[in-house]
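Blackboard transcription, Thursday session:
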Amino acid sequence: MTARIGVVVFPGSNCEHDAVEALCALGGSAELLWHDEASLRGVDGVVLPGGFAHGDYLRTGAIARFSPVMEAVAELARAGGPVLGICNGFQILTEAGLLPGALQKNRGLKFLCATVELRVETTASALTSLTAAGDSLRVPINHFEGAYTCDPATLEELRAGDRVVLRYVDNPNGSLDDIAGICSPAGNVVGLMPHPERAWDRLLGSGDGAVLVRSFIAACAGERWPAPHPAAPAYPSLPASSGARPGP
Amino acid sequence: MRTDVHRELGLTDDEAGSIRALLAREPNHLELAMYAVMWSEHCSYKSSRLHLRRLPTEGERVLVGPGENAGVIDAGDGIAVALRIESHNHPSAVEPYQGAATGVGGILRDIFTMGARPIAVMDPLRFGPLDEARTRWIFEGVVSGISGYGNSVGVPTVGGEVAFDPCYAENPLVNVLCLGVMPRERLVLGRASGVGNLAVLMGSSTGRDGIGGVSVLASAGFGDVEEEQSKRPSVQVGDPFEEKRLIEACLELLEAGLVVGIQDLGGGGLTCATSETAARGGVGMDVDVTAVPRREPGMEPFEVMTSESQERMLAIVSPDDLPRLEEVCARWDVRAAVVGRVTAPGPDGVGRLRVVEGWDGPVLADVPAPSLSEDAPVYDRPRRPPPAPEGGAGDPSKEAGPADCGPDLLQLLQDPSWIYRQYDHQLFLNTVVAPGGDAAVLRLKAPGLPPSRRGLALSTDGNARWCAIDPRLGSALTVAEATLNVACAGAQPVALVNCLNFGNPEHPEVMWQLSEAIDGLAGACLALDLPVVGGNVSLYNESRGRDIDPTPVVGVLGLIDLLERRPPGLHLEAGGSLWLLGPMAGELGGSRWAVECRGLRGGTLPALDLAGHGRVLELVRALVAHGIVAGVHDVADGGLALALAEMSVASGVGMEVSGPAVTDHAMLFSESPSRAVVCLPPGPDGERAAAELARRALGAGVPLVGLGVAGGDRLVLGGLVDLEVSVAAEAWRGAIPLALA
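(Written on the board underneath:)
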């Protein structure tokens, strides 16, 4: 059955319609969720889209993490449900503690909008199950605070746990270890700075992001669940359809 | 009252006299302050209005022409497109980041005021040479301001242009164009109606920022740096997050049909918004100055009424719909306060704008609402052509060309990506051709729009080198270039907006330039059947007594009937043949080569045949739309040589060009109009395409000249240029970053 995916709108989000368009065009069904509501309305998975939630005031994602919807997102994540944070969404996931590390200002202290080359590092995530490790994908980046950073122990954990999902081939922003995207130990929560939802229609330049969006839709449909990570604790597997969400 | 108060507010003695006559009494300070902002050059167009009437504004696609917040075009498929261009030159000179940022904010409000969702911004920018530290500060600040505000507010910046010239060293030009789309039936106009309806002020609180912005800052030139610094408090400060919520709240209100009229607060603040909505609706309005949410205590009524605090909108709403309006605003965290009531016009049919202190309190100001805008003075200022340069000084036609034109060509190459990489140019998944091409190309799509397979092409162009020599022909050439840019994207030009950046209108030479430029624009637009749907006039662009060169900037909107493949752009395919479409010419007057490589600013401009130009436009559009060419680029700045070099560096493919089009430096660098280079596919496809190209060019009566063949890693143009493509690419990429380093 078609996966139902919720795209969370914070005040200041601006990629929510783009995410909905990409998810629907590639076989999912998507709806907008308002940040101020505590319920996920029974969706199978959640996207935190790009933008400037709460104006990015104070610090990117620092205010958004307190929105009522984030409690429900955290519960879905803990239950093994697919959660994808794109750009500002990735920043919010790190602020909320659902992914480790932080995003700092780009090397060079300039906003960067460009299409860059990414390398798939693992297929064991909700975002990459339909790719092959080593695949090269051209996907846009669009951020000021996109330089991934974390402490050495966390980096070691990420590497050992096969949790670096995507790396930049030619590091554009000074990210530690060329990291473009990471995932939770179980692979169900993924955050990345590049925008796969901007690269699914060749009319717009690149279609390379489609496989990532499709992987996420498949994860939400329970079809292509990432294989358990070697270092990850066993997590509850989802039935084939929805219904694995924790109740409020 | 002190007799010189009106002068401090920027009004002349005659203007103060007119106000006295109009009111049949002595105006009080608040009233004088209101007239001063509304009768400022910026708000009233008092020096230019007489001449602007000569622009053609009608066309079958025009839904709304000049005079409203934005022009609106019927794009077909039930979709309307709103378009506007503005300047934020003076604020950007004083405070580059905030000046440029609030320029973006202001123009977005003009677009969503019409009911349209803003989907694209373009930024034509002009600065002094980058070897001056102050220019680098202005340049980097302006680009950061556009990036910081535009990206955060969530509207992609899809193109623009940049030029550097000493005449802009103290007075940069920061123009901004915005395009929005809406279902045709959602079009709304900024007018009040319905006696008893309420005027609701939405958005930011009102502070002391931007007081006198239109009169002190925008309608006077700069003396020196110290004077510029003293004007810094007249620059507004922007908050893109407030604007983003305001956009979403307003679009939701318009979608739900909860407002009767809506108007943004820009130059002239609350005075402008209340008087214009009342005047357009033929009604009056009472404004309770105490009901306006304020940012700081102790503000005087005149400060509240003229503040240009950003991110504010005025909505006219029926009392029954107020609770639902407040609900929408609360959801988006947008402040909403009832500050006014629509009142009936008097027996003479004229509504009055009254400022009151509490609904039943004293009346602080009481003036006929239309008098603030419609009764503003119209000046026919003296005009006089500047003296011709003595003995034809600065004429490049007398200059001998170099034996090797390679170094000059390298000097002209300049990649603007340092700028546009800082702008989100992809948001909304519409951007088919991003900045860097001849025109930006967008899908015609947004949430809530009927489906459409059409596309839009947009180009902004200006050329002060041409207009300094001959403002009339230079302006017409500017229109020609912008239309050819959209044709290269496969689009038919359908509408134009203009931003007229000129010096001090009290100088007769400047008024002459302005009048000539308007005639040049009018002539070109009439000949090309291109209605002018909106514009902006920025005068007093002068510093230390020197006026900028006349710089009319145009934005041309083109329509693509069926957008199903990416336009070829500046592409070269190895083995493909290269052709020049359009007349051959070698006139160098006003060219970048003459001005930037030789410092020669005189001479004669190349001629423009508007009928022939129209045929070139249609031919190029059809070649692109039918997929006949593999690459296309118009010949503009830097002439044929730069057009070919840009195609080479963009695709990493060299070429060998010979024959009559590259016989000397004048043929290489002339910026003669109505010309485009095309590259055909290689092999048998190319032979068929060549036959088709020849057939169509002959049918259209457009000259066609073979240039050579693409391929290899060298750029060879006759015996005049022989460069490695990698060397050209390095010069191109490094031009701006190295100048900033």
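Lecturer's comment: The CA atoms of residues 117 and 133 of chain A lie 14 Å apart.
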